[in-house]
Amino acid sequence: MSEQIERSIAKALSWRITGTLDTILISYLITGRVQMALTIGIVELFTKCSLYVLHERIWNRISFGRAYE
Fold it and tell me: Residue 44: CB partners within 8 Å, gap ≥ 6?
């Protein structure tokens, strides 16, 4: 059983939106600058989405931990 690429992308986006909002909040609390916090959050959104999809696709090819019936 394997996931389709569309599912991996949807999972990446939903998780990254949550993570990006967290990053923006933390960045704002540290810098005190809304523009800087948004810039950090947007850059992080795209880089981590790409890395997550790549990570999912690699793990999709590994049988470790899967139960086959």
Answer: 19, 20, 23
